[in-house]
């Protein structure tokens, strides 16, 4: 998009009549490193839309995520609380507590019409962020990434967001949250001077331009913000979640439009927890108690803290905590790393021995260590890792070298995405041999042997995993899959039921349960599982189709079956098995049929 045209478009967005309170657009840019945008200094970047928002609004040059993981970081934006306060500390294993007030809920109370369109599985409604939204579009059926999280591309996210706005009532201010996931690994093909990662950032930027162009006329304020960055090989980290360096903690944050300055760059340290009180203030609503600050005012110097318990949950290693304050940063795991970030922003020179007083002062500002009860998939190894860290913070000798093992695991993950199961197996099993408590390595071994059809070995790998981590949902689900492939429906049902006892909102297990129960000829039980699914995902045509089939063929309720099939076809006219359903319904209507 041409710069001049874009500025005209942005002018259109921020003036006009509309309600007295401005509409608010919150754009969350998954896995987007600040320094990969043109406005943050990247020469080759192709990000004209974000650059224009920055030059016409306020750009925060030191914005940080409190956790380099999608769900916990978004939970912080939506609650104004740090992960150790809202207690959603990793993807897939936690659900936000019902009594924690959410941004959209408070905006809805204040008269806003709230809609969200999300781009990937970590944020689907089951994890608790959908309260308050009239529309929460988390339909990922068009998933383009079968080996990682289900996700959908930016083009579709923008189209769905524009479609959602069609249903908004007139006369009410709007809050629209749009989540773009494309820059998350795996990346696309490089293009010219752009890396594959740059290309995906550029695609999001382009789609953001299309979204802005399509917004209804009125007065808008826009906040565009990253949830965390990406290692891209720096500090030996390819992606994010395992470390707390600036590569994954620093995020872009740009505010534009009604109520914001023009062409301002702010260098005070801010955190994603600030999004919550800022948006509420923009909407003219008072905030409940939270840990954020209103970003419209410059912040006095404050410690910026972060954590990741991902190493504990995945590998059984001590979690990491960090704090950055007045130009210094401390990262603590089994060892301590001190960096003078104001002079060494890339965090290359470790200074803990040279500055013991600074180190001690920063240690006092670290966030609290997770207590044993707060780590979901807890096993004995986790307890050990935590207590070692809690009582003997400097004694990390029993922890294997993270960098080396993580590199092998990263390679294993990559080989899995290429379906090179045997090669991936070599990497995972080498790590599991050196570090027997490593959950991820053992999961990798189980997944690879299952993929090549060695179900007996897969079965014993997942079982031994559950001996040490009885609440680890992915292991329960994988074992259920293996049991089903071995023809043991009953055990698959038991395992999916166990998952649903731990995480009642887990849609993967609920759907699998409905299918298994049907196979076991437990039709009423299968129907009730489908009913729960349809209640949680009323727009999921596939679920309506399958529930209809159960009613048609097993429960002999043709009226109800036809109603569900028609509903499914209205939602998705290109649904597979459409012809069979239509033929069947015609047959039922034919004279003499019953
Ligand atoms: Zn993310």
Detailed description of the structure:
This protein has 594 residues and is of the alpha/beta class. 44% of the residues lie in helices and 12% in strands. The protein folds into three domains: 292 residues, 3-Layer(aba) Sandwich (Alkaline Phosphatase, subunit A); 81 residues, Arylsulfatase, C-terminal domain, CATH 3.30.1120; 138 residues, Tetratricopeptide repeat domain (Serine Threonine Protein Phosphatase 5, Tetratricopeptide repeat), CATH 1.25.40. The strands form two sheets. Strands 1, 2, 3, 4, 5, 6, 7, 8 and 9 form a nine-stranded mixed beta sheet that branches. Strands 10-11-12-13 form a four-stranded antiparallel beta sheet. Helix 20 runs antiparallel to helix 21. It starts with a helix and ends in a 5-residue tail after the last helix. Zinc ion (ZN) binds next to loops.
According to CATH, what is the class of the largest domain?
Alpha Beta
Q: Overall 3D geometry?
A: globular
Radius of gyration: 25 Å
Please give the number of β-strands.
Answer: 13
What do we call the CATH topology of the largest domain?
Answer: Alkaline Phosphatase, subunit A
Average pLDDT over all residues: 89
Describe the structure in brief.
By secondary structure, the protein is α/β, with parallel strands linked by helices. 44% of the residues lie in helices and 12% in strands. The protein contains 23 helices and 13 strands.
